[in-house]
């Protein structure tokens, strides 16, 4: 029932306390993100990674704080439905002039569902879709930064403008040679645009917050000329003397999609009006769901909320059925998908056959580790959901049987809300981007015939990228544990990404060993492992037989990545990480780096 009158003072107080809780959350989130600039300037790389990790926890802490306060001060959980209806209306009123109303609504949903018993809250009490618009929000405070700045260069002043764009961020460090770098950017732009005529509206718009991640800072903007818009990102790094350089110029949607990929750590950006940042970024990457843009900006709860809304809408407007995901079934995870929807759903099974020796808690902690770790473009991000309800009629019977058999504790089939529609309710599920499993990708090439040029280049790409993926993971202190092809997927951009986390370990926790010399002929001939193996022991020489059964694959692997079969490779990386070295991770190809231009200039 819609309340006719807002007559409960208590409802207002609850709404106000909730909004205070949200504002406190966003203020802390924002100042932690803004401090990334200082960490970048002082080359505090460990601090940057720690902050990236810790910021993920902020949201849940603030939700817990706010719900405790509401219980303590207002006995919020004992209030009537009428009061809660009014709380929501007051909250909408308080959100109208807020600069992050969409986040405030999500915060309201989190706190409300925590306080009210699940069966008690209905959609009337929470925001199932936005109530307050995020269009045209501006901060009228004269001291506030605008969301983006516009520059109007002429042909002859382009390099000076690029310099100005960078200087406007007022980074404290000196540049090695900003004029030179600006000239590189302009040359790269010329090469990209060719001889285009500059139209009256020619301009460069630059988001006013720098994007920080690991050891990099990124200027993000777009070039507008006539009806064309070209996305742009300039990575700024420290050189070995602590001076700054623009390392590359990234142009176009694809380069930006790789920079903002779901397989990387979230950015730190000082944003007054996050929805305006999202709109700007979406105009550059129209195919990237808003949910993933919010995730990339570190606003993961908003990402989760939007993903779920997109998913429900997709369900309403599609007719296909959920099915067991193509590929080799997991021993630990039961994976299913909806063909028309580009994500997979992963449920932890109730039991695991040997040699798997793990528990639900351990598996969850590995997924959590990946969430908090720098994913270096090589590990898919997952969203964790509990009690997700799907329409039963959209489920393939074979999939229901599979769930009944392997994950009965996670499955409920019932008409939970009594509306006559039977639902499949899954207690706990991870959702992540769907990729083509690498074993399937390779098999496609084998089926064409390994001598066919198209198949050959497909195998080559897969094997080289697979090795590169493992090497990036190693640099980030991750040992994948299970390196079989089926545990990696290939993305739309041809990047190989790892997605099977249950056996993941830190490189620094592993013991990389050579296989000992056989003691006698019997040992040598034995098909069994005759030497003692500790729980964290890894024998890289033994990877070959599992991975390299196919000749074409073997040849390519040995050409590019034979070092992965040598314990010394792993040991040397381990020592570097132990010595505190933080590796550079580039979300763009080496060929794009300006450094290469400098190198070629050296005789
Ligand atoms: N993101 C994804 N995109 C496409 N397919 C996927 C994805 N994640 C998993 N799969 C499919 O599901 C299968 C099982 O997934 P996963 O490897 O995560 O399970 P697991 O139980 O941990 O496996 P293992 O038995 O190797 O430990 C994969 O082999 C693959 O075929």
Automatic annotation (TrEMBL):
It comes from the Bacteria. ATP binds at residues 325-331, 346. One of its GO terms (cellular component) is cytoplasm. Keywords: ATP-binding, Cytoplasm, Glyoxylate bypass, Hydrolase, Kinase, Nucleotide-binding, Protein phosphatase, Serine/threonine-protein kinase, Transferase, Tricarboxylic acid cycle. It catalyses: L-seryl-[isocitrate dehydrogenase] + ATP = O-phospho-L-seryl-[isocitrate dehydrogenase] + ADP + H(+). The active site is at 381. One of its GO terms (molecular function) is AMP binding. Pfam families: AceK_kinase (PF06315), AceK_regulatory (PF20423). Residues 15-318 form the Isocitrate dehydrogenase kinase/phosphatase (AceK) regulatory domain. One of its GO terms (biological process) is tricarboxylic acid cycle. Residues 320-589 form the Isocitrate dehydrogenase kinase/phosphatase (AceK) kinase domain. Its EC number is 2.7.11.5, 3.1.3.-. It is found in: Cytoplasm. Bifunctional enzyme which can phosphorylate or dephosphorylate isocitrate dehydrogenase (IDH) on a specific serine residue. This is a regulatory mechanism which enables bacteria to bypass the Krebs cycle via the glyoxylate shunt in response to the source of carbon. When bacteria are grown on glucose, IDH is fully active and unphosphorylated, but when grown on acetate or ethanol, the activity of IDH declines drastically concomitant with its phosphorylation. PANTHER family: ISOCITRATE DEHYDROGENASE KINASE_PHOSPHATASE, PTHR39559. Belongs to the AceK family. This is Isocitrate dehydrogenase kinase/phosphatase. The lineage of its organism: Bacteria, Pseudomonadati, Pseudomonadota, Betaproteobacteria, Burkholderiales.
């Amino acid at each position: 029932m819609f309340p006719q009158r807002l007559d409960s003072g208590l409802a207002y107080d609850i709404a106000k306390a909730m909004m205070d809780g949200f504002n406190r959350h966003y203020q802390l989130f924002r100042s932690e993100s803004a401090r990334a600039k200082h960490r970048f300037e002082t080359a505090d790389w460990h601090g940057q990674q720690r902050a990236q990790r810790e910021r993920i926890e902020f949201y849940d802490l603030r939700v817990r704080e706010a719900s405790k306060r509401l219980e303590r001060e207002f006995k919020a959980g004992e209030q009537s439905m009428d009061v809660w209806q009014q709380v929501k209306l007051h909250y909408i009123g308080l959100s109208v002039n807020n600069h992050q109303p969409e986040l405030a609504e999500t915060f309201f949903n989190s706190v409300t569902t925590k306080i009210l018993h699940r069966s008690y809250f209905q959609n009337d009490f929470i925001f199932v879709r936005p109530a307050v618009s995020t269009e045209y929000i501006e901060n009228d405070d004269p001291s506030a930064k605008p969301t983006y700045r516009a520059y109007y260069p002429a042909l002859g002043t382009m390099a000076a403008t690029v310099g100005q764009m960078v200087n406007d961020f007022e980074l404290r460090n000196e540049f090695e040679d900003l004029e030179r770098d600006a000239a590189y950017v302009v040359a790269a732009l010329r090469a990209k645009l060719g001889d285009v005529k500059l139209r009256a509206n020619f301009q460069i718009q630059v988001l006013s917050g720098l994007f920080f991640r690991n050891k990099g800072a990124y200027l993000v903007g777009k070039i507008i000329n006539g009806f064309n818009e070209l996305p742009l990102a300039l990575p700024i790094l420290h050189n070995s003397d602590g001076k700054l350089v623009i390392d590359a110029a990234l142009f176009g949607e694809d380069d930006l999609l790789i920079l903002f990929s779901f397989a990387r750590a979230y950015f730190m950006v000082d944003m007054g009006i996050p929805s305006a940042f999202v709109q700007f970024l979406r105009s550059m990457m129209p195919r990237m769901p808003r949910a993933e843009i919010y995730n990339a900006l570190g606003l993961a709860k908003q990402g989760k909320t939007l993903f779920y809304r997109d998913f429900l809408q997709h369900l309403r407007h599609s007719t296909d059925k959920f099915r067991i995901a193509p590929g080799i079934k997991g021993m630990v995870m039961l994976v299913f998908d909806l063909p028309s929807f580009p994500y997979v759903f992963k449920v932890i099974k109730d039991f695991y056959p040997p040699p798997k020796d793990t528990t639900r808690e351990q598996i969850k902690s590995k997924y959590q580790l990946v969430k908090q770790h720098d994913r270096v473009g090589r590990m898919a991000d997952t969203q964790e959901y509990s009690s997700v309800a799907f329409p039963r009629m959209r489920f393939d019977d074979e999939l229901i049987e599979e769930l009944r058999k392997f994950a009965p504790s996670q499955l409920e089939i019932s008409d939970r809300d009594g509306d006559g529609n039977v639902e499949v309710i899954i207690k706990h599920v991870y959702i992540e981007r769907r990729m083509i499993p690498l074993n399937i990708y390779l098999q496609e090439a084998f089926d064409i015939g390994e001598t066919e040029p198209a198949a050959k280049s497909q195998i080559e790409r897969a094997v080289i990228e697979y090795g590169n993926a493992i090497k990036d993971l190693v640099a980030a202190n991750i040992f994948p544990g299970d390196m079989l092809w089926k545990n990696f997927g290939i993305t739309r951009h041809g990047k190989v990404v790892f997605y099977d986390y249950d056996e993941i370990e830190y490189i620094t926790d592993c013991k990389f060993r050579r296989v000992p010399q056989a003691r006698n002929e019997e040992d040598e001939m034995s098909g069994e492992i005759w030497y003692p193996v500790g729980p964290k022991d890894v024998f890289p020489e033994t990877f070959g037989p599992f991975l390299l059964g196919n000749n074409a694959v073997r040849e390519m692997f040995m050409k590019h990545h034979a070092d992965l079969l040598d314990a010394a490779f792993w040991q040397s990386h381990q020592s570097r990480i132990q010595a505190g070295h933080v590796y550079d991770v580039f979300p763009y190809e080496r060929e794009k780096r300006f450094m290469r231009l400098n190198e070629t200039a050296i005789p």
